[in-house]
Amino acid sequence: MSRNYVIIDASEVSSVDFNQVLETSAETLLYNLAGTQTFVKFEGSAPAFLAGKPAHSHAEILEILSGSEWTAPMEEL
């Protein structure tokens, strides 16, 4: 079964049912550099609290997370 990933706003973390996603708690979530967004992953059908939000494949989420909103640029040596 493939995993799916959904980006949510930080303000939505309190509505996450951690029994329905693969993260264990709010403390284990990774946030973008601004601290305004995070993501959750799940297998199978999307939990109801994620209804209407676009789901991303593993390859898609890796591309998103490598962008400037999520990854700080490496300093030149």
In short:
The protein has 77 residues and is α+β, with helices and mostly antiparallel strands. Helix content is 10%, strand content 18%.
Q: Which descriptors apply to this entry?
A:
2 strands, 10% helix, 1 helix, two-stranded antiparallel ribbon, alpha+beta, 77 residues
Structural class: alpha+beta
Helix content: 10-25%
Bin the strand percentage. 15-25%
Radius of gyration: 13 Å
Q: How do the strands and helices of this protein lay out in sequence?
A:
Elements: E1 3-9, E2 37-43, H1 58-65
Antiparallel strand pairs: 1-2
3D architecture notes:
The protein is built from one helix and two strands, in the order ββα. With 77 residues, the protein is an alpha+beta fold. It has one helix at residues 58-65; strands at 3-9, 37-43. The longest helix has 8 residues, at 58-65. The protein has one domain (3-65). A two-stranded antiparallel ribbon has the order 1-2. 9% of the residues are buried. The radius of gyration is 13 Å and the shape is globular. It starts with a strand and ends in a 12-residue tail after the last helix.
